[in-house]
Every structure is written in structure tokens, then in C-alpha cells.
Amino acid sequence: MSLSNPIVGSPNVLLQKSGASAAGTLDTLSAQDKALREAAVELEASFLSEMLKSAGLGKSREGFGNGGAGEDQFSGFLVQAQAKEIAKSGGIGLAETIYNALKESQE
After folding, report:
1. Do residues 32 and 90 lie in contact, with contact meaning Cβ atoms separated by under 8 Å?
2. Could you give the CA distance from residue 58 to residue 6 in angstroms, rounded to a whole number?
3. Regions of the chain with pLDDT less than 70
4. What's the pLDDT at 26?
């Protein structure tokens, strides 16, 4: 089953909103539009990373199988990587809003 929510379900939402075809890629956008889109996705990833940390993702687990200092050191990297992947796959729609605002400010 595929989600078809236009805000969350498709990684091509920003491409569609920018005038690129649904089957298009970043190659069809201008260099400036690519930079704006990448900045928007990175900002959404940063926001999602903080939200995931607030939700407790990446905190040490006590008891059996405790990863110790290694787990503590690398859990932040894992949360950041997960947030980037969420943002790249459509995220929560924040990147689209940021992209549109940046695009309007350029015009």
C-alpha cells in the first residue's frame, strides 16, 4: 500500500511544486533551485533531528545489552542520519514550505 499524501508521501513534492515534472529529477532544476531545495531539506532534517532527540530516540538504554560509551557517542550520528533520510523522502512538509518561501524571496 502506498501513501499518496501530497505533503508527506512523495519525495518529488518539491520538484512538482517547482514546476519540474513528477518523473523529473534534481537535474531538471536550475543550480539556484537545487541549492534552495537542498537548503530546505537540510533545515527540515535539522528540525526533525531535534524532534527525534526530544522524543527520546538515541538515548542510552539501561540494562541488558547496554552499548556503553560507544552507544552514547554514536547515537547522535544515528539520529541525524535518520532525520536526513526522513527529510529526503518527503518529511513532514516543512522543506516544501521553506523552499517556497526561499523561492519567493529570490523573485
Report:
1. no
2. 30
3. 1-27, 60-67
4. 58
Cα separation, 23 vs 11, whole angstroms: 11
DSSP 14-51: HHHHTT--TT--GGGS-HHHHHHHHHHHHHHHHHHHHH
Q: Is the dihedral of CA 64, 65, 68, 73 positive or negative?
A: negative
- Tell me, what's the pLDDT at 66? 67
- R_g of the chain computed on alpha carbons: 17
Percent of the chain with pLDDT over 70: 66
Looking at residue 6, what DSSP letter applies? T
DSSP readout, 67-91? Answer: -HHHHHHHHHHHHHHHHHHHHHTTT
